[in-house]
Amino acid sequence: DFWEVLATNVDLRGKEFVSLVQARNGLPFYATQFHPEKNAHEWEWPYHAPVNGTLPVHTSGAVEVSNRFAKFFVDQTRSFRGFGFSEEEFWNKSISSWPLHLASKVKGLEWAGPHMEVYYFPPLSTSKRSGADLIV
Predict the structure, then answer these.
(1) Is the separation of the CB atoms in 33 and 26 below 8 Å?
(2) I need a labelling partner for 136 at 20 to 30 A (CA). Which of 41, 56, 63, 87 fits?
(3) Angle at the Cα of 51 (from 74 to 33), degrees rounded to 5?
(4) Which value, to the nearest 10 degrees, does the dihedral of the CA atoms of residues 41, 27, 2, 14 take?
(5) Terminal CA-CA length for the chain
(6) 117, 96 contact by CB (below 8 A)
(7) In this structure, how many other beta carbons lie within 10 angstroms of the beta carbon of residue 38?
(8) In this structure, what DSSP letter does residue 121 have?
(9) 16-23 β-sheet, strand order
(10) For residue 94, which of 131, 124, 126, 129 has the smallest C-alpha distance?
(11) Residue-level pLDDT at 129
(12) Residue 101's closest CA among 82, 80, 85, 120?
């Protein structure tokens, strides 16, 4: 009962899945099964797609929806001050404290596009943050 379903989609096989949820009780937590920012910035799928703005995900309407998602999420994060972390605690817990890797250089993700980046989170039994053992 923590999440409220906001949107569902249908996959290529016709199976419905949850694609957007929001936490209940006024908490500013959201989860998506898509990247709302991709419409404006990524072009490689489908392969050999036209780059003239005619692909449906690059229409002005699709880009506008992407911008609205971005504005909404940024506004939500700016308005929430409920955790009370010190600056040091914030940066220790921040995803920014983890190294970012080009996905195509990570074992098993060699197929990934040249712009895709990933964070490596080791098992909880270690605090190793380099991810160097994953790099091809």
Answers:
(1) no
(2) 41
(3) 40
(4) -20
(5) 42
(6) no
(7) 13
(8) -
(9) 3-10, 16-23, 30-32
(10) 129
(11) 58
(12) 120
Place of tokens 């929806």: 65
Phi, psi of 23 (to 5 degrees): -65, 145
Q: Which amino acid is at 78?
A: R
The H or E element spanning position 4 is strand 3-10
Read off the DSSP letter of residue 108: T
b/e for 97-109, b at 16 or more Cβ within 10 A?
eeeebbbbebeee
Residue type, 94: S
Supply φ then ψ for residue 134, to 5 degrees. -95, -20
Assess whether the previous peptide bond of 99 is cis (omega < 30° from 0): no
- Tokens linked to 129: 């943050």
Each residue's pLDDT tens digit, 50-98: 666 566 667 788 889 889 988 998 888 888 777 778 888 888 888 888 8
Q: Is the model's pLDDT at 130 over the cut of 90? A: no
Phi, psi of 58, deg, nearest 5: -115, 10
Q: Which amino acid, 136?
A: V
H or E segment and range at residue 63: helix 60-79
